[in-house]
Amino acid sequence: MGNDNHEIYDEFPYSRDHVLKNFERYSSNELRFYSRKRNFELGSPHKDVSKLSPYLRRRLLSENEVLKVALREHTPSSLEKFIQEIFWRTYWRGWLERRPNVYQDYINSKNEADFAGKTGIKCFDHWTEELIETGYLHNHARMWYASIWIFTLRKSWFSGANFFKDHLLDWCPASNTLGWRWVAGLQTRGKIYSAKADNIKLFTNNRFFPKGELNESPVFDDDIWKTYESASDISYENRTFPTYEDLGLVINKNDLTLNHYLSEKQIKFEGCIFHDPEYQHSKSASVRKFECGLIDQLCLELKNFHFCQSKKALTDWAKSKKLKCLIFPFETVGNKYFMDNSFISELRSRDIEPIFYMRDWDRYAFPHASKGFFPFKKNISDLLAQNKII
Ligand SMILES: Cc1cc2nc3c(=O)[nH]c(=O)nc-3n(C[C@H](O)[C@H](O)[C@H](O)COP(=O)(O)OP(=O)(O)OC[C@H]3O[C@@H](n4cnc5c(N)ncnc54)[C@H](O)[C@@H]3O)c2cc1C
Q1: What stretches of 59-214 show up as alpha helix (H) in DSSP?
Q2: Do residue 109 and residue 90 come from a single domain?
Q3: Residue 365 resides in a domain
Q4: Which residue from 93, 188, 201, 229 could staple onto 209, CB 3.0 to 4.6 Å apart?
Q5: Residue 115 Cα to ligand 1 middle (Å)
Q6: Which residues, 6+ apart, have CB-to-CB distance to 382 below 8 Å?
Q7: Whole domain around residue 67: which residue ranges?
Q8: Does any ligand 1 atom lie closer than 6 A to the CB of residue 124?
Q9: Under a CB-based contact definition with an 8 Å cutoff, are residues 303 and 332 in contact?
Q10: What's 331's domain CATH number?
C-alpha cells in the first residue's frame, strides 16, 4: 500500500500532524478572507478554502478541534460563515438520520451510466478531469457541475451522485446525496439550482464563460417529487463506559481519532485499526490509494494497535484479548458496516457486547436537524458552548 501518487499526497497528505499544520497555516493566513473568497473557484490548489473535507469526513481531524484551532486567532463573529459551513455537513448527516428512506431510494435507483465523458462544455470537461485526477472539486464547481449534469445534459441526479461517489476523496453519504438533491430541487420542492454562464465567468475569474452552452432556465419536473416523513424526535443517549481492562476500541474510516476522545476521558482500552480493502465505496484508484495511505500512516503511528481487515479477524482478536465489550464509531445512514444484526449476534454469541459510540458533537446537533438549515443554524452558538468551543 505504498505511496506512488505524489500529486495527491502533496495536496492531501496522510499524516494527521501534516494536515493539522496545513490547517494552522491556513487559519493564520487565509481564513480571515474566507467569507469574501470562498465562492471563487480559481483552480488548483484552491487556497481560498480549507480542503479539510477528506479528513473531517473520516474524523482524522474532528470538527471540534478544527474550530478550536480557528478560534485561537479569530473571533466567532469574524468566522461566522466558516463555522456555518462546518455545521452544514453535521446538519445534512442529522437530517438524513431521520429519513433513511431518502438514502435507500437513492441506493435502489437505477444504476445507469455514470460518466459524462467529453461534452464540449469546457468548464464541465475541466472539472470532470480535475475530479478524476485529484478526487476534489471546489464547492461552487460541485454546484455548477451538478446543475449542468441534470439540466443541460439531462442526466439523472442519482447517476451524477454515483459519479461523485466513485471519485470524491471526501465522499459523504449525506452531503453528496443531499447536495445533489438540493441542486435538483428535491430538498425544497421545486427550488432548483441553475448554473449560469455569467456567474461561472465571475467566480472563475474569467477562466470559463460557457455563454449559450447551458440550459439556464430549467423547469422542475414535479412528477419526481416525493415526500419523506421525518422520524419523530430522536434523542441519542449519553453512553458511559466502565474503565475495565476488557474494553476494546475499533477505529475505522467513520472515525479515525476516537482513541483520542476516549483517552481524554481516561478510558482504558485495547485498540484496533480496521480497514477492509474489499469494502470500498469507490471504483477510483485515487480514492483507494488515499484511504490506504491514511491507514498505513496510522499503523505506523499507533504501534500498540492491532490491525484487522475482516470481521472474523476482528472477532478472533477480541476473543484472544478476552475483551468483553467492543466500542465502534457510531454508523450513520450510508456508513453502516458493523451495525449489522448477524455480526452483532456473532459478537454476542462470543460474549462480546458491541457499543456504537456517538460523539457529543453529533449527539447535541442531530436533534436540531429536523427541518431546514435556517432553523438549525439558530442553535449554532448554543452548540459551540455545549461543545466547550466558546
Ligand atoms: C453536489 C454536491 C456534492 C457534495 N458532496 C460532498 C461530499 O460527498 N462530501 C463532503 O464532505 N461534502 C460534499 N459537498 C459539500 C462541499 O462541496 C464540500 O464539503 C466542500 O467543497 C469541501 O471542501 P473544503 O473542505 O475545502 O470546504 P471549506 O469551504 O473549507 O469548508 C470547511 C468544511 O465545511 C464543510 N462544508 C463546506 N461546505 C459544505 C456544504 N455545502 N455541505 C456540507 N458541508 C460543507 C465540509 O466538511 C468542509 O470540509 C457537496 C456539495 C455539492 C453541491
Answers
A1: 63-73, 80-98, 100-108, 122-134, 139-147, 157-167, 173-183, 197-203
A2: no
A3: no
A4: 201
A5: 21
A6: none
A7: 6-99+370-386
A8: no
A9: no
A10: 3.40.50.620
Q: Is 85 in the pocket of ligand 1 (CB under 6 A)?
A: yes
Q: Which runs of consecutive H residues, i.e. helices, occur in the chain?
A: 6-11, 16-29, 34-37, 53-58, 63-73, 80-98, 100-108, 122-134, 139-147, 157-167, 173-183, 197-203, 258-264, 285-301, 311-320, 341-349, 360-365, 373-377, 380-386
Residues 108 and 94 both lie in one domain: no
Closest CA to 327 of 339, 342, 309: 339
Q: Is residue 230 part of a domain?
A: no
Whether 359 and 333 have beta carbons less than 8 Å apart is answered as no
How many of the other CB atoms lie within 10 Å of CB of 390?
A: 14
- 49 with 93, same domain: the answer is yes
Tell me the HSE value of 225 on the side-chain side, using a 13 A CA sphere: 12
Tens digit of each residue's pLDDT, the chain (390 residues): 334 444 444 689 999 999 999 999 999 999 999 999 999 999 999 999 999 999 999 999 999 999 999 999 999 999 999 999 999 999 999 999 999 999 999 999 976 657 778 999 999 999 999 999 999 999 999 999 999 999 999 999 999 999 999 999 999 999 999 999 999 999 999 999 999 999 999 999 999 999 999 999 999 999 999 999 888 777 787 777 766 679 999 999 999 999 998 898 888 899 999 999 888 777 788 999 999 999 999 999 999 999 999 999 999 999 999 999 999 999 999 999 999 999 999 999 999 999 999 999 999 999 999 999 999 999 999 999 999 999
Q: Residue 11 burial (CB < 10 Å; 0-12/13-18/19+)? A: middle
242 CA to middle of ligand 1, Å?
37
Determine the atom of ligand 1 nearest the C-alpha atom of 171.
8
Distance 8 CA to ligand 1 centre (A): 18
